[in-house]
Amino acid sequence: MAFLDNSGDIILDAVLTDAGRARLARGDFKITKFALGDDEIDYSLFNRNHPSGSAYYDLEILKTPVLEAFTNNTSLMKSKLMTITNTNLLHLPIMKLADGGYQGESEKAANTKLGNIGTYLVTVDKNTEDTQTSLVKPDTSGKGIILGQASGGGVNYILVETGLDTLKVPPSLDVPANLQETQFIIEMDDRLGTLVTPSGTPGAVPASFIDDDQVASYFVSANSGQAAGGLIRERWDTFRGEENAREGGEGGTTNHRIRGPRGRMLQFRIRPSLNLATSTYLFEKLGSTFTQTADNTPVDGFKNGKSYYYIDTFVRVTAATTGYSIDIPIRYVKKTTVE
What we know:
By secondary structure, the protein is mainly beta. The chain is built from six helices and 15 strands. It folds into two domains: 3-67, no CATH class; 94-335, no CATH class. Helix content is 10%, strand content 24%. Helix 3 links the parallel strand 4 (120-123) and strand 5 (145-147).
């Protein structure tokens, strides 16, 4: 990774991604779309008080070094630029992990919480899920543990919210129709796991594309019938705390992390790959180990004195309308011994 000096002439540094080179080799390479991003830019450098006047307000931004072009399509452009003709917009939708909902304490969202180490934990085989020799309790609710081999995947799942995360627009309003998300792109390492529905149904969502780095992309649409399978759902409620009294709500606090108007939500589980379930090869090549020093320490939900292999990775979710994306931390866990 390197930066290009941007203090003088404008530089255009272009390379083909791995997918682009593969298509060029096949003879079917054709540029039909392009995207722009601003990952390197710090907009706080915009200086309205520059002593030389308005022509210099953005000088520091224009001189910001830019990253050189990457051939790996998964390593850049997390924040894509978009064109919006409505110049009156003050807020754009974002995505947030539900992670237990409002202040992490929503009863309805309890099973969406991250584990105590800040990641979701996916158990890869029955041995790791054994409640006599591995898990502290059969009930893993609220501990971020997704049972990868159990029927239905257990009670925990991953939930991503969309909406306007601001207190300046009441949550009783709807997200503007042209900014509502109806499609999501989910990317994950296909060597490690696959996407399944919240009910744990395998094969219901086939990968749309797997690139040369074994990153699988899943395109999920609210208009394709997949919403009926539970992957895309509507918001839980429209009110939040003190606004209930003003707007005639039902009382209590919201279940949501998004503070303003809320859009659709994406929910799913992960099923570990056959390789992880039956072998330690990838754990030894890509991961490490940890040993519990007490029940629930250092990882909540696992027994004292037991040792585990683990691989840390992430799942990236991108909203198709705005291009906003978040990286969701995932840890695959496998008990080192069979008892």
